[in-house]
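Field log, afternoon session.

UNIT: design team B
ACTIVITY: writing a sequence onto a fixed backbone
BACKBONE:
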């Protein structure tokens, strides 16, 4: 009897030992599963939309004019991903000529980081790149640009800066930044995660309460006090009856999809979306970006609205693309 009890104790101890040895493996599997989130989502643009449907949200832009001359500075950098994503130069070559078609708009270009002279001349900085490691002097230039009344539109990876002390400086300029790999998250998303818009905000007033994309976003970012989240991704069993506030409060919400920020006299419109190149051909996505541009400049968005349909409308009046645009080789400059 005593021998049997000893054998049972030894067996129990071995079972506990085996179980504890599996804990690191279970944890690793969980981490890998988390890291794999969204990887099974197939990149695919939305179906093109009839022009008449888009114009319900663009409104009439006939005879619309800007109230002043606008000097835009487009900041790009080396492309750092597989073709079809993070195509910073490709997107610059798409948008710069389009923006130049808007009356009273001029566009300059900068690579990696603007000069002080470029900051001094610009009204609006649009950044789509992975920023290099900025010096304290460069951060001071950037912060001074915003605080004196400069506008910024920040797209996707432009909010990432490491380590955390540098991220805090970037957040001072644009409102949000990467908080480190253990806190900030990223994932692909599809139509199962609608993008809910705060249509009470002037940038999104009159737009649908939710829209859909197949793209990528970040969340759990480092944020400054003056940041207002105006777009969040969240699953919803009943999308039509889900308010923006409820979507943002959802435990599964991926906030920081779109935000606004003010510092000094400057206004910032930011998004963590914009991973795939095809997304920039989507008329609804363009509409959101152009609305954001107008909001930062305190301008009526109407003069920018023709760009929603620029170069992405076919002979049947369908707006968008069916091309995944993945067959592309990244360029460094």
């Amino acid at each position: 009897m005593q021998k049997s009890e000893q054998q049972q104790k030894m067996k129990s101890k071995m079972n506990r030992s085996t179980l504890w040895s599996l804990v690191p493996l279970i944890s690793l599997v969980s981490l890998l599963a988390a890291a794999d989130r969204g990887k099974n989502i197939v990149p695919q643009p939305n179906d093109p939309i009839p022009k008449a449907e888009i114009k319900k949200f663009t409104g009439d832009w006939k005879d619309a004019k800007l109230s002043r001359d606008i000097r835009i500075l487009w900041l790009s950098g080396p492309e750092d991903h597989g073709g079809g994503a993070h195509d910073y130069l490709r997107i610059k070559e798409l948008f710069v000529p389009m923006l130049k078609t808007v009356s009273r708009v001029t566009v300059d270009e900068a690579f990696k980081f603007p000069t002080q002279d470029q900051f001094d001349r610009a009204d609006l900085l649009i950044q789509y790149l992975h920023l290099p490691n900025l010096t304290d002097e460069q951060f001071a230039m950037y912060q001074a640009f915003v605080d004196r009344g400069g506008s910024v539109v920040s797209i996707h990876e432009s909010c990432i800066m490491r380590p955390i002390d540098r991220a805090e400086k970037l957040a001072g300029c644009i409102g949000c930044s990467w908080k480190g790999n253990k806190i900030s998250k990223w994932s692909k998303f599809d139509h199962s995660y609608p993008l809910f818009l705060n249509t009470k905000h002037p940038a999104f007033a009159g737009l649908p309460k939710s829209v859909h994309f197949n793209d990528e976003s970040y969340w759990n970012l480092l944020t400054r006090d003056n940041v207002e989240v105006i777009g969040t991704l969240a699953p919803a069993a009943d999308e039509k009856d889900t308010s923006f506030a409820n979507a943002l409060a959802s435990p599964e919400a991926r906030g920081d999809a779109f935000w606004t920020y003010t510092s000094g006299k400057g206004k910032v419109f930011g998004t963590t979306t914009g991973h795939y190149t095809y997304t920039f051909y989507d008329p609804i996505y363009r509409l959101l970006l152009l609305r954001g541009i107008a909001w930062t400049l305190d301008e009526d968005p109407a003069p920018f609205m023709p760009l929603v349909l620029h170069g992405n409308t076919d002979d049947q009046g369908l707006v968008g693309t069916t091309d995944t645009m993945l067959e592309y080789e990244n360029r460094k400059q």
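LOG NOTE: Residues 2-35 form the longest helix (34 residues).
NEXT ACTIVITY: expression trials, pending approval
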